[in-house]
Design a protein that fits this description.
By secondary structure, the protein is mainly alpha-helical. The protein has four helices and no strands. It has one domain.
Length: 146
Amino acid sequence: MDLHSIIGSASCVFQIIMLLLLFYGLILKRKMKFREHGIIMFVATSAHLVLVLAIMIPSFVLAVVPYYVIVSPFEFLSIIGLIHGVLGTLAVSLGLLLVLAWRLNKDVSGCFKRKKVMMPTFVIWATSLLLGLVLFWIFYGPMLMV
C-alpha cells in the first residue's frame, strides 16, 4: 500500500466513525437529550471539517479535477467526483450553519426551528459519504484486494 491508499483508507474509517457519531446523536435526540445531541453533532461536524480541509479538498483539487474532471468531464468517475464534491460541500456548509447557530448554548429551544434542515443535511451528507466510498473503491479497491 502506498501513502495515498493509507490516507484514503484512514479517511474512510474516519468517515464511518463520523457516521456512527451521527447515529449516536440521533439516539440522544430520540431520548430527548437535546444538549448532548448538539454536542455530539458539534464534535462530528468539527472533526469532519478538519478532514475536509486537510485531506478531501487537497485531494479533489490536486488529483480529481486535473486528472479526471478536466480531461474527461462526462465520464463516470468525473461525474461521481463532481457530485460527491458538491454534496459534500453542501453537507459540511449546512452542518456548520447548524452548529454555529447553536454555539453550544444551554438553551436548545432555538434549535427546534432549524429541525427541518437537520434531516436533509444528514441525507445529503450520507449520500456524499456513499459516493466517496464509491470513489475510494474505484481508486484503491483493487490495490487493497492483493
